Amino acid sequence: QLGCSTNPATGRSQLNLMSRSQEIALGEEAKSQLTGEYGGSIGDASIHNYFSGIGRDLSTQTESDFASLPWEFTLLDSEVLNAFALPGGKVFVSRGLAEKMDSEAELAFVMGHEVGHVTARHVNERISKQMVVTGAAAAIGIGAQMSDSDVIKLGVPAVVGAGAGAYLLKFGRDQESEADALGMRYMERSGYNPYGAYEAMGILAQAAGDGQRQPEFLSTHPYPETRLRQIQQRLQKEYPGSLQDKNTKTFPGRYQS
User: Above 60 in pLDDT, residue 255?
Assistant: First the structure.
């Protein structure tokens, strides 16, 4: 629905000037640019199926009709520590970031967090606000008069830059907290211990402080210390059982070199 509407995943009202079909078109257009910049996708079919299987499980736990989006989960062949999502259900995690995770639950949180950015329609929200601020929405006609090509022309540079080939959009504290909460919700519904969220964020916070390889993930997903505190509070309030049994599923060894 165009304009201000209540999002079924977050329960809050937000401004969305792109339709569902336009979000999907934007995600499809930007996908190849970002995939190529990050070394392409992992070619091993067993790894791809394993990774995609986790993602599909998470996507089926989403609200309303989000599960029917054309979800795609891509493991990028890059040592850069990063994960991001495009509108319409395109989720990406780098091999470098996956290798940092010590359990499947931790990876499920990272992926669930990105699924949360999609269901919360955060990219749509940010681009819509930019359109209002710059006057682009009025110039081309808000909502129904925007063609998919108009959306791509405005949206792709906002997401990946004009030929920069890197994910540009940075989310605010509230959006990151929202995606964390949704990621924990989806991973718990998929059968994972949500304590994996705390472990995953702890790994990222440690990587940010080691001074050797700053996670690119934290340039677009900032505030690891704040998010760690919020995740711990959420565990205590919403998932108290997870703190009594902190066991998480382990990897079958596919990501370890």
Answer: no
* DSSP notation for 19-38: -HHHHHHHHHHHHHHHHHHT
- What DSSP string describes 140-163? H-SGGG--HHHHHHHHHHHHHTTT
Query: Which tokens sit at 97?
Result: 């970031």
* CA dihedral for 253, 36, 89, 215, sign (positive or negative): positive
The Cα–Cα gap between 176 and 98 comes to 19
Give whichever of 23-37, 135-149, 217-231 has the largest mean pLDDT.
Answer: 23-37
pLDDT over threshold 80, residue 56: yes
Task: Match 């110039």 to its residue by tokens.
Answer: 139
Residue 132 in 3-state DSSP? Answer: helix
CA dist list (Å): 229 to 21, 158, 170, 225, 237: 37, 31, 21, 6, 12
Instruction: Read off the tokens for 189.
Output: 């519904």
135 CB-contact burial (10 Å; exposed 0-12 / middle 13-18 / buried 19+): exposed
Q: What is the pLDDT of residue 140?
A: 46
